[in-house]
Amino acid sequence: MNTLLLAITAIALVVLVALVLRPLQEQEQPKQEEDERISPLLRGINYLLSDEPDRALQEMVQVARLRSEAADVYMALGEMFRSKGEIGRAVRIHQNLLARPDLPQSMHLQAHLALALDFQTGGLLDRALMQYQKALDIRSDHAGALEASLRIREQSKEWLLAEELLSRLERVRNESDSSHRAYLFSEMASQSCSDGDRDSAAEYAARALELDPACAPAHMVEIELALQAGEVEVAEAGVRALKAHSHEHFPLVISLLVQYKDFYAKHGLALLYEFCQQGRDAELVLAWLEVVATAHGRQEAVNLCSELGFVPGTLRESLRLQAVIGDESDPHTKFSMQWRTTAKNYICEQCGVEVVVVRWQCPQCHTWGTLHPKQEEKV
């Protein structure tokens, strides 16, 4: 049974317990009426265990009809509709709950959170934020609502608002996450750099590196600002700092260096040769070859590879090298080039998700700075 069915089954069991125990807290109801409600719920659980979620959902609807006053039944029903992708029906259920004047105060927080999750699942992020804020108005220290709001702000690239939410979340959890904040500042720096606000970009990048010297995107912003201003010594110092503090992500700066032809010819080449002589760094060499092939052509990459004396040591390295310097008429090269366009190049150290293009925030577990270049290819 998959995780979804297990979750729905758990919800149904909770409702069953609520229906059984509620008579202990409320006025005793006729046994026959209780049996009428419990029977379809048991059938629903049986359908879930038999991997028949559609029939299970029909039984849950019947339970809701028989106990229209029970908010917990409707909450469970809304969860089931959302789990099946019927977001509109889930939204209507939770909105109707909130509109009921007899809804217990204790249920308002749960209903707002459920409605927020409905909207968030459906991609209506503004409406989701409104519901999370209403939940926070009820309970300002609700970590789940703060974290969900933070994710939405990050997804919307609203970095200042995200940083404010991170501060609130840190106070609730009584812990500091300096690395997370550093990456938020680096995103502010990158955004300011793109907008032409050099002073703000420099300030945000400096704040990011003060919090986390290994924050590669902040180094990249400082290097780009120095290159734009023609500050050769500052740019070179930035390149060396990136190599020292974040060597795995250092190859990403090569394409930036190549864009500034004068700096690349007079300083960038010497720096890259120096780093290659410090020890075998396949990621650095292959990234350099790929950038050179794109900017100057395949033959330039062939000459550079020969000059560096690079020999691949793994299947992944062989495929990447073949895709760059191989003869395009060779079937093996064609395969390697096709593989290179879809190959997963980065893997998250936290959750193991693999992505094609580097991201500073993992798209699955949402942690920052945990995606690293893959070293080997599965066969």
Automatic annotation (TrEMBL):
UniProt feature coiled coil, ranges: none
Keywords: Metal-binding
One Pfam assignment: Zn_ribbon_LapB
Ranges where the LapB rubredoxin metal binding domain occurs: 346-373
One Gene Ontology MF term: metal ion binding
SUPFAM superfamilies to which the protein is assigned, alphabetical: TPR-like
Protein name: Lipopolysaccharide biosynthesis regulator YciM
